[in-house]
Write a structure and sequence with these properties.
homodimer, 10% strand, DNA-binding, CheY-like_superfamily (chains A, B)
Chain lengths: 198, 198
DNA sequence: ACCGTCATCCTCCGAACGGGTGATGCCGGG
DNA sequence: CCCGGCATCACCCGTTCGGAGGATGACGGT
């Protein structure tokens, strides 16, 4: 099954599997909700899933999909390989993570490997997983503060918005700085954006 | 002609025009340089061009393409509609700007319109163009300062790095804030990243 | 029962930031 | 020729940040 919100990509993928004997495209969906509904009926062995989609996004869809149908293998096929995307996909339990610049042979191989119970990772994704031994993720509350910082809010404003004291805001930010390895709010929002945290 | 670095997208686009009588895909390219070489031989009427590509990117390719073959119409087909992307594409003289979530009918229509000398804009792109009457772009020097801010540098460090006084750095930043409509360095880097300025 | 994480709060303080006002020189377009 | 944008610099001043200490309670897992 193919899940992607771009008609162009869906057509391209279907075409790539058109003349492949051992792979059949049994369904297509353009967002997460549609994917769940289609999977229930079509019962695919493997799902090729984009991550960034309107409505229910890829990670949410994967979580529900794997809860409903643990036997279905999910291979992520996306444009981005940011730490946050990769980490969330891995946590959701995917069988593969490929980038959209992959050639058709790699896609064929990935689907077969996944169907056989194996795992497939794009090279850049593999290295992204390696290069984060101490990847400290900010807590939900810390991210909330960070998002307001990204909007240009001062600590005092953030305190008012979140109904906490300014001291607490500063404490949260101190922890965020430590976890992101920076020492200023400007650098923090840049790192957070690059990692897809906000 | 189709220009996109993703094989999946190229296949999808070719498939979309496969059974369309009045449109023929005469060439494909996976980056800007290849696009220039192919255009010279294939002489397409219309080029569907992605913007973000390895090597020579879309805007650079469009500029050279229009210099060499002014009669060729270029329609941008990309995932993003950031101000900077749209503005640069428009400045390069494109006949259309569509997003990759466009349905096939819209693509057909766009190619026909472009071939006939018309212009096609995705709705969100049109509104992006509208919503910037006073879109003040920071000057090169100001962007240089902003990039260092995004690295987390303090004004004093920026001054040392650029061999200017701290006062000058603050002046540049003051102007950047005014142009971006923000009042803090954190918000400035966010806006700059969203607009593709840094 | 204990330890780590999260979330909340406090004080003190120097450095950094952002706003205001003003000035100089250069350049290019009207 | 003059005006506006750019780049450079100065001084003042109030506010904000970020660092360095600490502290408390709640929760969840070992």
């Amino acid at each position: 099954m193919i899940v992607d919100d771009h008609p162009v990509v869906r057509d391209g993928l279907r075409g790539m599997f058109d003349h492949v004997a051992d792979i059949e495209v049994v369904a297509e969906a353009s967002d997460g909700f549609e994917a769940l509904a289609m999977a229930r009926r079509a019962r695919p062995h493997v799902v090729l899933m984009d991550l960034r989609m309107p409505g229910l996004d890829g990670v949410g869809a994967i979580q529900r999909l794997r809860a409903d149908h643990p036997e279905i293998k999910v291979v992520v096929l996306t444009t981005y390989d940011t730490d946050a995307d990769v980490a969330r996909a891995m946590a959701a339990g995917v069988a593969g993570y490929l980038l959209k610049d992959a050639p058709r042979e790699e896609l064929h191989r990935a689907v077969r490997t996944a169907a056989a119970g194996g795992a497939v990772l794009a090279p850049s994704v593999a290295s992204a997983l390696m290069s984060r031994p101490t990847a400290q993720e900010p807590s939900p509350r810390e991210l909330e503060v960070l998002r307001l910082v990204a909007r240009g809010s001062a600590n005092k404003e953030i305190a008012r918005a979140l109904l906490i004291s300014e001291t607490t805001v500063k404490t949260h930010l101190k922890h965020v700085f430590a976890k992101l390895g920076v020492d200023s709010r400007a650098a923090a929002v840049v790192v957070a954006m690059e990692r897809g945290l906000i």
